[in-house]
Specification:
Elements lengths: L3 E10 L17 E6 L8 E4 L6 E4 L17 E2 L8 E2 L4 E4 L6 E3 L10 E4 L5 E4 L9 E4 L16 E2 L13 E4 L5 E4 L6 E5 L9 E2 L1 H5 L18 E4 L6 E5 L2 E6 L4 E6 L14 E4 L13 E5 L20 E6 L8 E4 L8 E4 L5 E4 L2 E3 L8 E3 L4 E3 L9 E3 L13 E5 L5 E5 L28 E5 L10 E5 L3 E2 L4 E8 L10 E6 L3 E3 L2 E3 L4 E2 L1 E12 L2 E11 L11 E8 L2 E2 L4 E5 L1
Parallel strand pairs: 35-45
Antiparallel strand pairs: 1-41, 2-33, 3-4, 3-38, 4-7, 5-6, 7-8, 9-10, 10-11, 11-12, 13-14, 14-15, 15-16, 17-18, 18-19, 19-20, 21-22, 22-23, 23-24, 25-26, 26-29, 27-28, 29-30, 31-32, 32-33, 34-36, 36-42, 37-40, 37-43, 38-39, 41-42, 43-44, 43-45
Bound molecules: 2-acetamido-2-deoxy-beta-D-glucopyranose (5 copies).
C-alpha cells in the first residue's frame, strides 16, 4: 500500500446505496485473455478457491488418458477401470488464473458428473460421480488451495462413508446454514440426502417431485431424465429451497420433506440436463431486511430427440428466458427472448448485479456428440432494466473459443470470468478420425485451454481499491468496517456505491451450484480526500451491516466487492461468515 496524505473529512450518514437505482451503462465489448493453452486436463467442474483465488478443475476417470501425467510418477490402480486399470494420468488440477501454472491433484474414484460446494472452513466438499465414485464424498482441504503448497503432497481426500442413494451423479448441491450440503436428485435418484449425514448409516429422502418430472417432452412417453442437475436455491429468511426440474418448480421445506408451493410450468422446452439451460437467483438485496422479493431466471434449453441421425441437423436450442417471483403465491413466468438460441451456456452473477451468459451451443443438447454451432458471443442480462431492454450482445475480438458440452464459467477475484473445458467427445479427442460419427459440424476438439472474459462493466473506468477491513471473519447481525480508495469523479454528487458479496460457486453442466449475490447495507460512509502515491483521490471508510439471517449468507467464505458507478473494485476482499 502506498503513501497516504489526508485532507478534508466529509461525513455522509446513512448513505443509501440502491440496487434499484443503479444505472449500469454498458458500453464496450469486454475482453478475452488466454490463461493457458494447455491446462493438462479438460474441465468438467470448476470452483474458485477461497483466499488464494486459484481454481480447482476436475474431470473424470474411466475415460482413458488425459494430456498430463503426474511428475512424481504416481499412478492409481483400479482393476475395473473401463480403460486404464493402471492410470497414471492427471484428472484434476489447481490452476493459478494469473500465471497459468497448474498443480496436479490426485484422487481415486470416478468424479464424472459430480457436484460440490465450499464448506464453512474453505474446504471444497464434493460428492458422487460415475461408477465406483457414485456414492463417494471427497474433500480438498483449504491448505491445499495453492499451486505450491507447504505440504508437498496435498490432494483430494475420499471418505469411506458412502452416500445413501445408489447413484448420485448429475445431482445438485447447496450449502445449508448448519454447514452441511444438501445433495438433490441426480440420474436415477429422485431423492435427496445430506453430507455429512445427520445419522449413520445415512438416510435418503424420497422426492416424488423429481420422479414425476423425469421424462422427455410434453407427451411424457420417453424415458429420459430431463430434470437432473436441478436448479436449487436456498431462499433468504424462510430457509426453504426453490427447486426447478424439467419445466416445473416448487418451494420445498427440506427439513420436513414438504412441498410448500408449486409454480406453473415454464413455457417452451425442458431446461435441465440434458436440455442444457442455465439459471440464476437474481441478487438478494438488504432493503426490507431480505424479506423482499426473490426472483429466479432460467435461460435456454432444448428439445431432446435422442435420435442419433447423421443426416439430420440438430434442432435449435431455446431462445427464451423465463423470470419468476418465487416469493409470491400465484406468480407465473414472464418470458423474454435472447439474441440467439443457446443451450449448454453458463449464467454468472457479476459483482455489479448484471448476469453474464457465456459458453454454449446454438444447436443440440447435452451428451457426447450432440452439440453444434457454438454460441461464441457472451451476452449481458441487466435485471434492473425493463423487459425488452435487458440483453446486450458482447463482441470482444477474437470471438470466443467454442465451449460447449462439459465447459465451465467462474467469477474470479479480479471481476473477470474464467472459462475452461468443452468436450463433446468421449475421451480426449483432438481430430475427427471417425468419418461416420460424429458428422462434420458436430465435431469439436477437446479443449485444454483456459481463458478469462472481462465483462465491460461500466466501461471499466475508476475501479475502487479495497485497502483493509477490521475483520476477516464476521458474525451474523454484526458490522464490518472496510476502507477503500477511489478516484475523484467529475461529478461526485452522482456517484453510486454498491457493496456485494458472493460465495465461490461450483460450476458444472451449465449450472453454478450455490451461486448467489447479496448486496449489503452501508450504515455509514466517511470520506477523506487526499493523495495516494501522489495521486488525488478519496479514502472511504464504510460500515457494512452483515445480515441477521444465516440463510442469506450460510457460513462460508465470500468475495466482497465495492462497486462504484458500476465499476467493481480491482479485486475482491475475502471474508468469512460464521
Ligand atoms: C500433451 O499434448 C502435447 C501436445 O499435443 C503432447 O506433446 C504431449 O505428449 C501430451 N502429453 C500427454 C501426457 O498426453
Ligand atoms: C416413480 O414413478 C413410478 C411410475 O411413474 C413409480 O412406479 C415409482 O414408484 C415412483 N417412485 C418414487 C420413489 O416415487
Ligand atoms: C434421418 O433424417 C433423415 C432426414 O431428415 C430422414 O429421412 C431419416 O428417416 C432419418 N432417419 C432416422 C433413423 O430417423
Ligand atoms: C485514477 O486516477 C489515477 C491518477 O489520476 C489515474 O492514473 C487512473 O487511470 C484513474 N483510474 C481510472 C480507472 O480512471
Ligand atoms: C469493526 O467496526 C465496526 C464498526 O465500527 C464495529 O461495529 C465492529 O465491532 C468492528 N469489528 C471488530 C472485529 O473490531
Amino acid at each position: 500500500m502506498g503513501e497516504w496524505r489526508g485532507g478534508l473529512v466529509v461525513m455522509v450518514l446513512a448513505m443509501v446505496v440502491m440496487y434499484e437505482g443503479l444505472v449500469v451503462d454498458v458500453e464496450g465489448a469486454g475482453a478475452w485473455r488466454v490463461v493457458t493453452k494447455n491446462a493438462g486436463i479438460t474441465a468438467m467442474h470448476a470452483a474458485v478457491a477461497p483466499v488464494t483465488g486459484n481454481v480447482v478443475l476436475l474431470h473424470q476417470t474411466n475415460n482413458g488418458p488425459s494430456n498430463m501425467t503426474f511428475p512424481d510418477g504416481r499412478c492409481k490402480y483400479y482393476p475395473d477401470d473401463r480403460f486404464l486399470p493402471k492410470d497414471c494420468f492427471v484428472h484434476s488440477v489447481i490452476i493459478d488464473p494469473n500465471s497459468g501454472v497448474v498443480r496436479p491433484l490426485f484422487f481415486q474414484t470416478d468424479t464424472q458428473c459430480s457436484s460440490g460446494q465450499f464448506l464453512r472452513d474453505g474446504t471444497l466438499g464434493q460428492t458422487g460421480g460415475d461408477r465406483e465414485g457414485t456414492q463417494i464424498t471427497r474433500t480438498l482441504p483449504f491448505k491445499c488451495m495453492y499451486v505450491n503448497p507447504t505440504d508437498k503432497i496435498c490432494d483430494w481426500v475420499e471418505s469411506s462413508q458412502k452416500m445413501a442413494a445408489n447413484t448420485r451423479w448429475y445431482a445438485t448441491n447447496q450449502l445449508l446454514p448448519d454447514g452441511r450440503q444438501i445433495v438433490v436428485g441426480g440420474r436415477g435418484s429422485p431423492s435427496y440426502e445430506f453430507v455429512p449425514p445427520y445419522t449413520v448409516p445415512p438416510p435418503k429422502y424420497d422426492m416424488p417431485f423429481l420422479n414425476v418430472t423425469s421424462f422427455d417432452g410434453p407427451d411424457k412417453t420417453k424415458n429420459g431424465p430431463n430434470n437432473i442437475y436441478p436448479y436449487v436455491y436456498l431462499l433468504p429468511s424462510s430457509g426453504y429451497l426453490y427447486i426447478f426440474a424439467n419445466r416445473d418448480s416448487i418451494i420445498f421445506d427440506y427439513k420436513n420433506n414438504v412441498v410448500i408451493r408449486s409454480f406453473p410450468q415454464i413455457p417452451g422446452n425442458p431446461r435441465n440436463y440434458p436440455s442444457g439451460g442455465s439459471s440464476v437467483m437474481l441478487p438478494l438485496t438488504w432493503q426490507n431486511g431480505f424479506k423482499n422479493k426473490v426472483e429466479v431466471v432460467v435461460c435456454g434449453g432444448a428439445t431432446v430427440t435422442w435420435v442419433a441421425n447423421n443426416s439430420m441437423p440438430q434442432p435449435y436450442c431455446s431462445v427464451s428466458c423465463g423470470r419468476i417471483e418465487v416469493t409470491k403465491a400465484g406468480s407465473d413466468w414472464a418470458m423474454e427472448n435472447m439474441d440467439i438460441p443457446r443451450c449448454m451456456g453458463d449464467m454468472v452473477l457479476l459483482p455489479d448485479t448484471n448476469v453474464l451468459i457465456i459458453n454454449g451451443a446454438q444447436r443440440g443438447w447435452q451428451g457426447w456428440d450432440n452439440a453444434a454451432e457454438p454460441a461464441k458471443n457472451p451476452i449481458l442480462y441487466n435485471p434492473t432494466k425493463p423487459a425488452g431492454q435487458r440483453f446486450t450482445t458482447l463482441d470482444a475480438p477474437p470471438s470466443g473459443t467454442p465451449r460447449m458440452y462439459h465447459s465451465t464459467a467462474n467469477l474470479l477475484t479480479d471481476g473477470s470470468v474464467m472459462v475452461a473445458g468443452s468436450n463433446t467427445n468421449e475421451f480426449y479427442k483432438f481430430t475427427n478420425n471417425n468419418k461416420y460419427w460424429p458428422p462434420p459440424g458436430r465435431f469439436f476438439p477437446t479443449e485444454l485451454s483456459v481463458e478469462t472474459f472481462t465483462p465491460p462493466y461500466a466501461g471499466l473506468g475508476d475501479r475502487p481499491v479495497i485497502l483493509s477491513s477490521n475483520a476477516t471473519t464476521v458474525k451474523f447481525n454484526s458490522v464490518l468496517q472496510i476502507v477503500f480508495w477511489d478516484n475523484i469523479s467529475q461529478n461526485p454528487s452522482t456517484d453510486t456505491f454498491l457493496f456485494t458479496l458472493n460465495p465461490p460457486a461450483f460450476s458444472t453442466h451449465s449450472f453454478s451450484h450455490g451461486q448467489r449475490l447479496v448486496s449489503l447495507q452501508a450504515l455509514k460512509i466517511t470520506t477523506t480526500s487526499g493523495t495516494q502515491n501522489g495521486k488525488p483521490g478519496n479514502m472511504r471508510t464504510v460500515d457494512l451491516q452483515i445480515p441477521v439471517y444465516t440463510t442469506v449468507l450460510p457460513p462460508a467464505y465470500y468475495m466482497l466487492w465495492v462497486v462504484k458507478n458500476g465499476n467493481p473494485s480491482v479485486s475482491c476482499l475475502w471474508i468469512q461468515t460464521r
